[in-house]
């Protein structure tokens, strides 16, 4: 275990840069924070480059950290790396998932995301997709960076449970079509009531931006547009809530 | 229309105080922000005390503001009152809803909240309850203040569509029992799969704190504990997403 006391140490400077999307994309690495996320990353064999711990943090005996290098830092350095008000003593630098990890095949289930902007919404969608047994989450262009700290925290480890990858939606749509996977898009207009949907064993659900929804181009590519019935006076549902309702409905009604 | 240019004006000072829960509770009033929320408040006849507009904001002709007094303020004052990065030119001071507005009666649908802490989660639950046609949302002790600006923004006007009131959960539970309304509580332990639930025409759904869930006391009071099946590797769902899935499931399966 190596110890760092100066915040001008080059490693510390490099880790701080990972708080920006630009540096994350350049290096293909990202930071996660807190014992729960680090434990999930370890348990699911994520590509962990280093652990970073605060001086008084005890690594739990149950963690199998193998040969992953550990850096010990001061409380002040940990604070400077953390995006939360109360840092929890442990972080990790991880390598990003590869889009090769997504395989389109008959019977599989996907969530496709077109331009969701709020990090909390994206994280919650990933967690929800995981709960609903989805095989992979595809992030189309214009979607907020999944390696943003707030996305990671909201996703609560689900990014380590299933592939969550950036991909051209065109490629994802073709992957679905070529494998008989029914592609549903959420839409408030010219859409069928979700309760009438009858997916094949596999399905893909395409959800869109908080304000403008799924882009016309992808609505046209969908096999069917679905709407969640509104029984009250709200105009629409939050995108993460809508994803949850639809995934469990499709799960329920598939042949 | 009266105009205020000085931020030491007593009205401005009073409005600023409404950014604290203490002052909101003392006065029974709260601030809302942005044209969408103000329009919803006007459309649903909320108790609006004043409108506050920035000097270059044009009140849309479609707004029926009746005799509500309007104060015009400088851009600087508006910024000092706003909790958002980009103030949208209009705010309103409103009076809080009364718990008398909740009526327990056979066939009605309720959401009961036990200690939800995140303002975004509470706002999203209210929006979701509105979408699902719930009759009222009951806020038990320990739940984040509904008049917090972030709750209001996440609820997107739904607080004006249905009663959302603080109430002792004991009273709410009794209201349900006395009217034959099936009370379901969410729980990860000793719970039935939600797909087996078969509510009466009326039902109440009790959801709990993000970390600790529904308190033991209320779990015992419930007619049935429900769990959403997890098909993947996530441990649980976000509370607002879970509320959405359960409300639409109960809506679907009720007799």
TrEMBL record, chains A, B:
<comment type="similarity">
    <text>Belongs to the class IV-like SAM-binding methyltransferase superfamily. RNA methyltransferase TrmH family.</text>
</comment>
<dbReference type="GO" id="GO:0032259">
    <property type="term" value="P:methylation"/>
</dbReference>
<dbReference type="InterPro" id="IPR029026">
    <property type="entry name" value="tRNA_m1G_MTases_N"/>
</dbReference>
<dbReference type="GO" id="GO:0003723">
    <property type="term" value="F:RNA binding"/>
</dbReference>
<dbReference type="Pfam" id="PF00588">
    <property type="entry name" value="SpoU_methylase"/>
</dbReference>
<protein>
    <submittedName>
        <fullName>RNA methyltransferase</fullName>
    </submittedName>
</protein>
<dbReference type="InterPro" id="IPR001537">
    <property type="entry name" value="SpoU_MeTrfase"/>
</dbReference>
<dbReference type="GO" id="GO:0006396">
    <property type="term" value="P:RNA processing"/>
</dbReference>
<dbReference type="InterPro" id="IPR029028">
    <property type="entry name" value="Alpha/beta_knot_MTases"/>
</dbReference>
<dbReference type="GO" id="GO:0008173">
    <property type="term" value="F:RNA methyltransferase activity"/>
</dbReference>
<dbReference type="Pfam" id="PF22435">
    <property type="entry name" value="MRM3-like_sub_bind"/>
</dbReference>
<keyword id="KW-0489">Methyltransferase</keyword>
<keyword id="KW-0808">Transferase</keyword>
<dbReference type="InterPro" id="IPR013123">
    <property type="entry name" value="SpoU_subst-bd"/>
</dbReference>
<dbReference type="InterPro" id="IPR051259">
    <property type="entry name" value="rRNA_Methyltransferase"/>
</dbReference>
<feature type="domain" description="RNA 2-O ribose methyltransferase substrate binding">
    <location>
        <begin position="31"/>
        <end position="100"/>
    </location>
</feature>
<dbReference type="InterPro" id="IPR053888">
    <property type="entry name" value="MRM3-like_sub_bind"/>
</dbReference>
<dbReference type="InterPro" id="IPR029064">
    <property type="entry name" value="Ribosomal_eL30-like_sf"/>
</dbReference>
<dbReference type="GO" id="GO:0005737">
    <property type="term" value="C:cytoplasm"/>
</dbReference>
């Amino acid at each position: 275990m190596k110890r760092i006391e100066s915040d001008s140490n080059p490693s510390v400077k490099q880790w701080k840069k990972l708080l920006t999307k630009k540096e994350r994309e350049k290096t293909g690495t990202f930071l996660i924070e807190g014992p729960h996320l680090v434990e999930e990353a370890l348990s699911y064999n994520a590509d962990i480059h280093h652990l970073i711990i605060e001086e008084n943090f005890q690594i739990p005996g149950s963690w199998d950290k193998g040969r992953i290098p550990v850096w010990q830092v001061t409380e002040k350095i940990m604070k400077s790396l953390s995006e939360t008000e109360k840092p929890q003593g442990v972080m990790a630098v991880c390598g990003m998932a590869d889009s090769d990890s997504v395989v389109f095949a008959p019977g599989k289930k996907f969530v496709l995301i077109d331009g969701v902007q709020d990090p909390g919404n994206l994280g919650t969608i990933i967690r929800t997709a995981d709960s609903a047994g989805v095989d992979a989450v595809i992030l189309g262009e214009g979607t907020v960076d999944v390696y943003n700290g707030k996305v990671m925290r909201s996703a609560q480890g689900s990014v380590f449970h299933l592939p969550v990858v950036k991909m051209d939606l065109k490629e994802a749509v073709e992957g679905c079509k070529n494998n008989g996977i029914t592609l549903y898009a959420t839409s408030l207009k010219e859409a069928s009531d979700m309760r009438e949907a009858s997916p094949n064993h596999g399905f893909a659900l395409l959800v869109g931006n908080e304000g403008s929804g799924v882009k016309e181009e992808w609505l046209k590519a969908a096999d069917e547009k679905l709407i969640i019935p509104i029984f009250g006076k709200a105009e629409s549902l939050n995108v993460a809530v809508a994803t949850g309702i639809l995934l469990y409905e499709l799960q329920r009604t598939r042949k």
